[in-house]
Amino acid sequence: MCTLDTEEKILDAAIVLFSQKGYTAVTTKEIAKKAGVSEMTLFRHFYNKRNLFERSFDKFVFSPKWLALFESFEWDLERDLTKIGSSYQDLLYKNRKLILMHLKNKESNPHFEAMIYKFPNEFKKLLSRYFEEMRNKGVIAENPETLAISFLTTNFGLFITSLTMNKLTFETDIQTCITNYVKIFTKGIACNQ
Please, what are the domains in the chain? Predict the structure, then answer.
């Protein structure tokens, strides 16, 4: 069996079990069994559970495509924020298993928490820089960091609502919600010209 295939099977099994039970409750024995490999094979590839989690996190969360988004702005507030909101929702949906794992984790683990919050913190910095540039262009007057936090929390709330309800209230699709939210948000923060 190819090493990459084995690693993929183990990573896929790990993320499923982590999301179902939480990091602490899952054993390496369970992960190995679900992946169809021996526990020794799991350790040969990943050394320990923490390394396995970190590799799972890197595989499922970070994407160079995401960073490229912040290099392709049109500098049109509504269009850029719609693109950012849609991409953020896609990223959250693709990583819903990790997010569910975090929500199910009952124990506090500083290392785990640092990893899970790494992406939102980096995203907030990128979004703050975008809003700072828009403020420099005279498009907005508000505090860039406050705007970034507001935008992120609203979008995360939209994601959690759709995740826990399996569909949005009133049968509204997520893209319609993003479009409407961005219109309201941009109208509220744009400088009157």
Answer: 3-59 (1.10.10.60), 63-189 (1.10.357)
